[in-house]
Target: ABC transporter ATP-binding protein
Amino acid sequence: MTNLAIAGDSLAYSPRSGRNLLEDVSISVADGERLAIIGPNGAGKTTLLRLLAGLQGPTSGTVRLYDRDIRAMRPVDRARLVAVVGQVDQPDHRICVRDYVGLGRVPHHGQVKKTDDRAIVDAALVRTGIEAFAGREMGSLSGGERQRAQIARALAQEPRILFLDEPTNHLDPRARSDLMRFVAGLDLTVVAVLHDLHVVPEFATQVAVVDAGRIVACGPPDQALSRETVQRVFGIDLFRLPHPVENRQVTVFDIPSQL
Model:
């Protein structure tokens, strides 16, 4: 049997306003998989990620992480298992990069020696390629460097599952591709909410398409991102074409003059 990292069953979420943001959503993520959650604005993507990460509780339904009910987990135990990089994370611009990454060690305080904590922080800086920036203030970093610092902080947490909420926002096309290739190379289960469809095929092993609070397609990228689904959900077209130079296929998203 496949070892499930995440299992969400019959999830629904309604804020006090009463409008359902998610309704009857079930999803599972195997250990080591990379799930991209995509959909139009307001579809419920971030809400789904927050429920799966335990940042908020569902109105109904259950979430299990490695077969443990997330509601029964202590916050510190969840923080040792799950790391989240949110789209609205705004670290103090005056904090130096090393100290910021060191915040990822908070859930482990008292569990390991301080020298081990420092070694883990150093390893996270090296792994994300920002060791040269360790003494700089967070406010001096570019958008891509800041995203890597946020991921370094998450890696210092030593999680088994990494949640990313729109990590490519404010990055140029090359930086987006580089960042998601780096994340894909991590030996972790990753769940990412993505707006940029171009980075999905090379990053994800599974794709969940969310529309109006429901999952309307889920599976490997070439199945979930069918032309019909992309047209219906996003109002754009999709073509898979041979690369003109390299021996590979290219996925092209196009805004047609008329569908």
